[in-house]
Amino acid sequence: MIALKDKRRLRVAVWDRDNGRCRYCGKVCEWSGIRVTGILCDDNFGILEHVIPTRKGGTWKIENLVLACIYCNAKKALLNGETISCEHGAIDIERFMRIAGIQL
Which domain, by its residues, includes 94? Predict the structure, then answer.
């Protein structure tokens, strides 16, 4: 597990490296998002994304991290059959996208 301060440091480094843009679609990302029922759901929100998910052997090294908008992050997770972990536990990606109003 990685410490919160290290996650924050990595987010800043990845944000700077990727010029605040989603590496998948090129959209300009926002630093903070809007919460709906405890879930970040502004599709411009920038997420620290693992290219290779940690549960599939991916690491927290900067080479395995990219900035992704919430849409691209959710789309990738949906295509990989994953769930999103949040403060309320894991939720189904399709449910998350409906709540967030994100269309595929």
Answer: 4-100
